[in-house]
Amino acid sequence: MNDFSDIPPCISLAEALRSAPLDMLENRILIGHALQLTRIQLITQSERLLTAAEATQLTALFRRRLQGEPIAYIVGEREFFGLTLQVTPDVLIPRPDTELLVELSLERLPQQGKALDMGTGSGAIAVAIAHTRPDVAMTALDVSEGALKVAASNAQRHGAKVHFLRSDWYAALDVGVDTAKSPQPYLDLIVSNPPYIVAGDMHLSQGDLRFEPIGALTDHADGLSALRIIIDGAAAYLKPDGWLLMEHGYDQSEAVRKLLQQRGFAEVQSWQDLAGIERVSGGKLPRAS
To answer: What is the DSSP letter of 220?
Structure first.
């Protein structure tokens, strides 16, 4: 790949697909994106010749990818839970494993339920839930203005009703609450995919992670600090029998279950992702005895 040279003009789409420097899937994605052609059109127009301008544009895109920039940022989109979502360098790229959080949330949300997505990023989780369950009153928060703009755009694109709020975790939810009193519990579900990578982890300097927002990846500590904040504050907002569900690292399930148990959550458990790794843990707030 280091000896990649410019894509020449006047070659056919079929030749461009074969000679481009990535695997066939990524070649097809980038060429289709640049030329605004669907997969079917790439086949039916396979003998079409590239213009000089198109060849130059494709060369620039392939060089960006060869330098490591994620495909999702180059094309500006990623599919999640059957929805095409806008992504920018302001947000994490949604991963298929995070769809597990959506599935578990949908299973636990009652009709007309109220849910909160903490650290929403692209809005992937909140938008997927609200799109699938229009009856749910969905709120999503993030501390990043850039992320909230992307999330709001994704909600509008798919007609999902989500109330977005700029907040450093629970901070904005406490505005107007008498400090001498606890906030009134009103949520049936809190869901989150927070930063959980340990500071200094070698993966932060590898692959797509090099290009993603560092504050959405790591807590700059032991990987559990954001999870602790979410767990410690959840009981003030969850109704009895309300659920807290969180994504975490491949080796953090036992620690997260322990944190949940220490805070009095019931039915504490972990669920496996597509690779068979315990990726989501959660529990239910018990009713007062």
So the answer is: S
Least confident of 17-31, 149-163, 168-182, 232-246: 168-182
For the chain, give every domain's residue range: 13-67, 91-284
Domain 91-284: give its CATH code: 3.40.50.150
Is 215 known as a binding-site position?
Answer: no
Please check if 194 is assigned to a binding site.
yes
* pTM across the whole model: 0.91
Is 120 annotated in a binding site? The answer is yes
Determine if residue 195 is labeled as part of a ligand binding site: yes
Is residue 123 a known part of a binding site?
Answer: yes
Q: What is the pLDDT of residue 287?
A: 83
170 labelled ligand-binding: no
E-assigned strand segments in 143-234: 162-166, 187-192
Q: Cβ contacts of residue 89 below 8 Å, gap of 6+?
A: 73, 211, 212, 213
